[in-house]
Design goal:
Elements: H1 6-38, H2 40-43, H3 49-52, H4 62-65, H5 69-78, H6 96-110
The chain binds heme C (HEC).
Residues 34, 38-39, 41-43, 55-56, 64, 67, 72, 75-76, 80-81, 86-88, 90, 102 line the site of heme C.
């Protein structure tokens, strides 16, 4: 058992945990880039959409983020509401991964802590 020292095991565990948390952080970082590029003009930097005037209010309208990831990802993909003033579709603009990343950014930044 000398081969697998406790120190070595701890180090491997550290590497594993570290790589997992950094991919989570990378996803949020990617999501932020997408958000600032594609969503911020309507939803605003603070996620309130000017209290729901320019877009859905992620911070105060609990009916939005209480939906499942599948429901929200579908809305991000196909859009919602009025074709002119509503939520525009992102299909073809964003990859599935980018839509997941931006949703993760929205949940971690504006959702209930
Ligand atoms: C042109 C303005 C505009 C842009 C850009 C925009 N949105 Fe929206 N968004 C809206 C409006 C308006 C609504 C409210 C739609 C409704 O409820 O009819 C909305 C609603 C939403 C909702 C809530 C839908 C629901 O079920 O209530 C989500 C989630 C969302 N947007 C995500 C995003 C993401 C992610 C981006 C960027 C990729 C984005 N939006 C870009 C205007 C915009």
């Amino acid at each position: 058992m000398e081969k697998y020292s406790l120190k070595g095991l701890l180090f491997v565990t550290f590497l594993l945990v570290n790589s997992m948390s950094s991919s989570f952080a990378d996803s949020i970082e990617e999501g932020k880039i997408v958000y600032l590029d594609m969503c911020e003009e309507c939803h605003q930097l603070d996620g309130t959409g000017m209290n729901g005037v320019t877009a859905g209010d992620f911070v105060n309208d609990e009916s939005i983020l209480s939906q499942t990831d599948a429901e929200l990802l579908n809305t991000i993909k196909v859009g919602k509401g009025d074709p002119v003033d509503g939520m525009p579709p992102n299909e073809g603009e964003l990859s599935d991964q980018e839509m997941k990343d931006v949703l993760l950014y929205i949940r971690t930044s504006f959702g209930k802590k």
